[in-house]
Amino acid sequence: MSMKILITGAGGFIGGFIVEEALSRGYETWAGVRKTTSREHLSDPAIRFIDFNYGNKKILTDQLLSHKREYGAWDYIVYNLGVTKCKNPDDFDRINYGFVKNFTEALVETEMVPKQFIMTSSLGAWGVGDEKNFTPIRP
Question: In tens digits, what is the pLDDT along the chain, a chain of 139 residues?
Fold first, then answer.
């Protein structure tokens, strides 16, 4: 039986490469992407797609339970979802913190915690950068 992996943010630059690597290793590969995300670089017919509502924990929990009933849990999850630029600064916290919080809490509540959970991030996690003067970020 092959290992199952979920890669969130699979439609992005890094996510697409993680999907390719998972497929090359023979994993049953699930790509977490929005319905509106281009799948131009996710064309392998072995890829399974899933679209989660990360902003609503109740709906997200129901989606996970439905997936669990039909396919079981994932062995590995690579959480690669996030934003680096937003028009509204509050979206940084909502997406880069709120979404992962909802997702991890829903995984615990649905008893779908994988063997390994890898979270990637970006400098965007620090918040809105100084794109006018390009002042370095300091801790």
Answer: 789 999 999 998 899 999 999 999 999 999 999 998 888 889 999 999 999 999 999 999 999 999 999 999 999 999 998 887 778 878 888 988 899 999 999 999 999 999 999 998 766 666 566 677 877 776 6
SS3 64: helix
The DSSP symbol for 72 reads -
Nearest 5°: phi and psi at 68? -60, -45
**Residue whose structure tokens are 């994932």:** 74
112, 94 Cβ separation under 8 angstroms: no
Question: pTM of the entire structure?
Answer: 0.86
